Automatic annotation (TrEMBL):
The lineage of its organism: Eukaryota, Viridiplantae, Streptophyta, Embryophyta, Tracheophyta. It comes from the Eukaryota. This is GRF-type domain-containing protein. Keywords: Membrane, Metal-binding, Transmembrane, Transmembrane helix, Zinc, Zinc-finger. Signal peptide: none annotated. PROSITE patterns: ZF_GRF. The keyword Zinc-finger applies. Residues 23-64 form the GRF-type domain. InterPro entries: Znf_GRF (IPR010666). The chain crosses the membrane at residues 96-113.
Length: 114
């Protein structure tokens, strides 16, 4: 077991079904994915109350990453996040253009029908 603070650099899924580990509180731990530079993409279990209420349950699910993965994965993740932001920006721009096109057609039709 090891301690680690990854609250802003991890994603979590609560375990489903029977089986799996139980933390010191008796709760079902979350299976999280670390996105720190030291452990990119590495999964671990932690208590829902990790670093609160005195429970420090933490166990790695995956083995340590090789040095090549630790070099490549953070850049790939940053690229993915940047692309997702660009897609969201393009979707907003598309909606604006569709609205402006609709308004321009409405104005055109109101002048044309007069």
């Amino acid at each position: 077991m090891a301690g680690m603070s990854t609250s802003s650099n991890s994603s979590a899924n609560q375990l489903q079904g029977d089986g799996g580990p139980t933390c010191h509180c008796g709760l079902r731990p979350y299976l999280k994915t670390s996105w720190t530079d030291a452990n990119p993409g590495r999964r671990f279990y932690s208590c829902p109350n990790y670093q609160r209420n005195g429970c420090n349950y933490f166990v790695w699910e995956d083995p340590p990453m090789c040095s090549r993965s630790m070099m490549i994965l953070p850049g790939m993740r940053r690229t993915k996040v940047q692309m997702e932001k660009e897609i969201a920006d393009l979707k907003r721009a598309k909606k604006l253009m569709e609205f402006l096109l609709f308004v321009s057609w409405c104005i055109f039709l109101s002048f044309w029908s007069s």
